[in-house]
Amino acid sequence: MNEDQIVVVCPDSQNPKHDPVAMKAIVDFIADIEPTGVIHIGDALDFEGPARWTKDTRKEYAGNVEQEAEDFTAEFIAPVREVHDGFFGIHEGNHDLRPRQYLEKYAPALADSKFFHIENLCRFDDYGVQRLPDFYEVFPNVVTTHGHLGRIRLAQVAGMTALNAAKRFTKSVVMGHTHRAAAIPHTLGIGEPQTIWGIEVGHIMDESCADYLKGTPGDWQKAFGVLQYSKSGHFKPEVVYLNQANEFEFGGYRYSPGAAA
Ligand SMILES: [Fe+2]
Ligand SMILES: [Fe+2]
User: Fold this and answer.
1) pLDDT for res 53
2) Neighbours of ion ligand 1 (CB under 5 A)
3) The total number of structural domains that make up the chain
4) pLDDT value, residue 8
């Protein structure tokens, strides 16, 4: 690492249940700050059709998988690529893998086809997007992961799930999956003090589309992450919270959807 690096982390969007204004606000932010890298933390798509709970309901027969993947590609991957030519990686979340899991379960004879893997459904190769490994070391001792793997135990407090994982891995952990947003430091005091972070990057869903919340507000936060890594090896994470109007502040600037910073 020879220079300061900034990676913008897009949270769970669960397209088509996302908030398109929030998604566009993140793309515009990327255009504005010109980061060195962009990561989507996974659950890019919701894929309700091949979900376990949808089995034998009308939704199973909707046949929307390809269209939803195309829509996400058009609404996020292509616009990010238009404004950002550096590193661009996407994790596979537990929702993103539903189509391939469905095939493995109900059509095992076809499951060797890679067509329904997220990187092919969303044409990662066409846009120079990397399908990230389940645990990706974005900077030394900083790991990004969706959050459904590695026997990470869910905690009910924002940031605690990631912090518990960070303590176990003795590395900073940046994750999605909980739809909560916070960054919590933990300093290991043995020998040279070393601070590791648990970072949860929130969500940008349209909460009214989340059937499982049953109309109640979830303990979720709309946000995204900005990870900074300096030449000297200092890691500084930041969780950027979006308000109801999808406005947010970063670096002393106030960002409003549709307005230049
Ligand atoms: Fe999610
Ligand atoms: Fe998830």
Assistant:
1) 86
2) 12, 43
3) 1
4) 98
